[in-house]
Amino acid sequence: MSRKEKFFDFMGMYKVFIIGVFIAFAFMAAMIAFNFSAQASWQASLAKQEATIADLANQLSNASDLNEGVRRQAVRMVTGTDTLRVAKDRVVAEDLIRQVTSWSTYDEYEAARQLLTLDYGMKEDGQFLSRYMPFVLNTELNGINYNHIDTKGLNSLYEGMTQYLINVDGNDYTYSTLVEWSARNSVGSMGTAVSLFEYTITVDGVLYNLSAFTLAR
Fold this sequence. Notes:
The structure is a single chain. The protein has about 220 residues and is an alpha+beta fold. It has two domains: about 1-80; about 80-215, Nuclear Transport Factor 2, Chain: A. The protein contains five helices and six strands, in the order ααααββαββββ. Strands 3-4-5-6 form a four-stranded antiparallel sheet. A hairpin with a 5-residue loop joins β4 (about 170-185) and β5 (about 190-200). It is elongated, with a radius of gyration of 40 Å. The termini are far apart.
């Protein structure tokens, strides 16, 4: 083969190579464009699905709130009881009961009694302060308290309560509540007890007529 023929043969192969490279680049560009288009379409579809899910969740939440409102209204119509009010009253009662059944020193015990007389208007000769949580004799000497609470290392701890609505008188709700509490002393002895608390709470969250009895120890 002459030089001229070899040259033309080489140029033919070169043209084929160039065309192949061009086709490959064109194919890659098409694939990239397709991928971008597919990704954009997938993201749009995902966003639409998320919006649909969010809308359904919102509808479900609204329906749940509506159903709870209907349920409370039905209970109130049949029994005269507002279940939401009962839950709020429990918070009021538990806050007080926790304070009067949780103490570890004479000072804390007396602070709980003063809370009842000053904030709740209870009398020293009333049932609760005269029998359930009575006055403890204390002698102070050189700044030290001497009483059977501190001397014996007595302490009490609130454990829990179960509240029962027993009467509705207009906007005043009366409850009987089983209260669990535990007691310990300085030598490590421990016991548990259950007390029955009874009280009435007004619509404004004011608790009164508090009484209590220890049922089991």
